């Protein structure tokens, strides 16, 4: 069994992810660079005896601002995805009940779980986990094949690679091909781990196939591609050419608009505090009572929440 390698998947994924990241950050930096501080040539508004100023932008600056909003949205989605994934990962690890180490392989942690499962978790230092239920249903050859599969994930740090790909496919939403390429790369990660287990000589295809059937009989699922690969059939995949073309068009359009607009964009603002006020001292005096109320609410609200948490403990 040879590993299922499609050389075009990873280069395309990295190319689109890298250029998409640069294309998202470029308009944000260009929009900031076009803003000039000025006490004059800005819009002014008189309200309740206070004079407020607001930025004055030309047409190119408005266009650049719209493109920068796309880049800002991509950055915000990426940060949100990273935080959510980190939180879910910590919650997942906290829910694992580690019963000990596997006697045959001390680097493998055994968890108390009624479901038969084996997986690799961890980003910088991934670990292999296997449930006690899986140990009860797997034979020696099947167990070695499963561990070889998971150790391959650990060696190449597949959890970290897949986490990065998942975040980028969510953040760069304007590149439709990125999600399809990430799904394909996830499938290839499993196929390559199967190939590594077979090549390790720990029972061959039969041991790995038997282990997969044991997991499937207990409620798991087997990818049809993995079955075909274990049977020695070639794994086919059709490159999403239309999605890649649409993604390249979106990248080129975003780059062209950013470059053209940044050449002619001009925005002027005073940068006074609070936001764009030309009389900051008076405005800050008006805001002091509101800020005091917020501080008191945060102080006593924090104490109340701590008390509730203490009662729960």
Mean pLDDT: 78
How many strands appear in the DSSP assignment?
9
Poorly predicted ranges: 273-286, 300-313
Chain oligomer state: single chain
Class by alpha and beta content: alpha/beta
Distance between the termini: 54 Å
β-strand percent reads: 5-15%
Query: Number of domains in the coordinates?
Result: 2
General form: elongated
Number of helices, counting only DSSP H or I runs of 4 residues or more: 10
Residues in helices, as a percent range: 55-70%
- Largest sheet: spatial strand order: 5-6-8-7
How do the helices and strands follow one another from N- to C-terminus?
HEEEEHEEEEHHHHHHHEH
**Rounded Rg:** 28 Å
Largest sheet: 4 strands, mixed
Overview in brief:
The protein is built from 10 helices and 9 strands. The protein is α/β, with parallel strands linked by helices.
Explain what you see:
- With about 325 residues, the chain is of the alpha/beta class.
- The protein has two domains: about 10-280, no CATH class; about 290-313.
- The protein has helices at about 10-35, 60-95, 130-135, 140-155, 160-170, 175-200, 205-215, 225-230, 240-265, 280-310, and strands spanning about 35, 45, 50-55, 55, 100, 110, 120, 125-130, 265-270.
- It has a four-stranded mixed β-sheet. It has a three-stranded mixed β-sheet with strand order 1-9-4. The protein has a two-stranded antiparallel ribbon with strand order 2-3.
- Strand 7 and strand 8 form a beta hairpin.
- Helix 1 (about 10-35) packs across helix 2 and helix 1 packs antiparallel against helix 6.
- The chain is elongated and about 80 Å long.
- Residues about 275-285 and about 300-313 have low confidence and may be disordered.
């Amino acid at each position: 069994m040879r590993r299922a390698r499609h050389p075009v998947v990873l280069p395309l994924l990295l190319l689109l992810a890298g250029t998409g990241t640069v294309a998202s950050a470029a308009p944000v930096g260009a929009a900031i660079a076009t803003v000039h501080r000025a006490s004059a040539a800005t819009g002014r508004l008189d309200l309740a005896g206070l004079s407020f100023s607001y930025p004055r932008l030309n047409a190119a600056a408005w266009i650049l601002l719209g493109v920068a909003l796309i880049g800002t949205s991509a950055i915000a989605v990426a940060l949100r995805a990273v935080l959510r994934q980190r939180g879910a990962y910590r919650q997942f690890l906290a829910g694992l009940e580690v019963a000990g180490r596997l006697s045959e392989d001390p680097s493998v942690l055994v968890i108390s779980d009624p479901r038969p499962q084996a997986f690799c978790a961890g980003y910088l230092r991934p670990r292999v986990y296997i449930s006690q239920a899986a140990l009860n249903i797997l034979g020696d050859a099947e167990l070695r094949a499963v561990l070889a599969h998971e150790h391959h994930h650990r060696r190449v740090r597949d959890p970290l690679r897949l986490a990065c790909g998942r975040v980028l496919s969510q953040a760069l939403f304007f590149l439709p091909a990125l999600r399809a390429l990430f799904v394909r790369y996830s499938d290839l990660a499993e196929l390559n781990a199967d190939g590594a287990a077979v090549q390790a000589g720990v029972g061959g295809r039969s041991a790995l196939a038997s282990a997969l059937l044991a997991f499937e009989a207990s409620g798991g699922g087997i990818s049809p591609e993995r079955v075909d690969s274990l049977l020695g059939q070639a794994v086919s995949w059709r490159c999403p050419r239309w999605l890649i073309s649409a993604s390249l068009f979106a990248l080129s359009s975003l780059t062209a608009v950013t470059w053209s607009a940044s050449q002619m964009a001009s925005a002027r603002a005073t940068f006074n505090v609070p936001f764009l006020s030309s009389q900051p001292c008076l405005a800050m005096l008006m805001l002091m009572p509101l800020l005091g109320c917020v501080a008191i609410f945060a102080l006593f609200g924090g104490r109340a929440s701590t008390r509730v948490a203490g009662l729960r403990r």
